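Title: Prediction job returns without error message
Component: structure pipeline
Severity: low
Priority: P3
Assignee: unassigned

Description:
Job completed but the reporter wants confirmation the result is attached to the right record. Sequence as submitted:
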Amino acid sequence: MERFGVKATPSRNRSKTALYVTPRDRVTEFGSVLHEDGEKLFCTSCNVVLNHVRKSAINDHLKSKTHTKRKAEFEEQCLRKKQRTLTASLQCNSATQTEKISVIQDFVKMCLEANIPLEKADHPSVRAFLSRHVKNGSSIPQSDQLRKTYLPDGYENENQLLSTEDC
């Protein structure tokens, strides 16, 4: 057929999927009914993952009985949170986590300045005092982890302070 200049007809089996549509595009298209997290599209009221490539799948879900039932429940409660992916949850650094690190660093600095060995932090009475009287005091790790993780940071900070004072 190619020899005579006749072109073959295009295939009728072409997929009807949108090639360059992202979950964010679908969120802007459908509004607050959907939300996006980690390149996945979620139904806000149902907390289920939807196929963002096919618009018909989204429309079918929004017309389904289960969605309308869950949407009514969601509007009544209005407390259900949006589902997040695991990676987004792990990347979240809350204020309590940063406060915990600050308390541990201050504890190590106090021990170093007062010439208190870090092994004393393992004593049961010290543990009881920290958990009772210090906010986040029970989150202070054992002495070996203090030595491995937090002591090098304190050492580097003190060296930088000393080098700036010498100049």
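Comment from assignee: result matches the submitted record. The chain has a mean pLDDT of 79.
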